[in-house]
Amino acid sequence: KQDRHMWIPMLTYYAERGFVVASVEYRLSHEATFPAPLEDVKTAIRFLRTHAEVFGIDPKKIAIMGESAGAHLAAMAATTHAHHVFEKGAWADQDDSVQAVVDWYGPNDLALQNPNAHNAGTPEAKFLGAAAADCPERVREANPITYITEQTPPFLILHGDADDTVNLAQSELLYDALQRAGVPVDFYTLAGTGHTGLKFMNPQVYAIILAFLQKHLGI
After folding, report:
1. Which stretches of the chain score pLDDT less than 50?
2. Dihedral in degrees, nearest 10, Cα atoms 152, 156, 160, 163
């Protein structure tokens, strides 16, 4: 499963500024294929709403944030609200919507993510359960752009222009789709920055995220 402790130091920044933060564990591709990881994330959102009073959460002001594969799942969770096919697991009576999304260099169209879409050994193929070229309908179902509507919550997208793991074009596709739907979206490109890296872990980036969350959650 994804290490839920990895981002605790960064999340502390937001906890110190009045946010309730939670780090979500989800199944990785060697444990389960799509949509199981998405179901895990959506179950976590329902868990938080169920226990909102216990944790001091405002259930009407929930944001989701992720990086790389986690950003893909965050975008999927945000755009697939009310798509009941993905609502499996506990606390089924609860709403799994979010009100804002922070997407750090996430992939969107998995068919474009790897130059060899026929290779069943790529990370994308392992996630999908088959080579991307062999399951176009599953690729479409695993693309958050498929589900974007004017009701999609606001997005903040961050991506390095030197990323050789998830190409910048992936975030450009998402940005363009959100704009076409009239969804509020901010897009920041970090010059000379690759996939992850210390340039993302700086006060300026943290402040951009904080301002976005404050604006769209009304905090």
Report:
1. none
2. -30
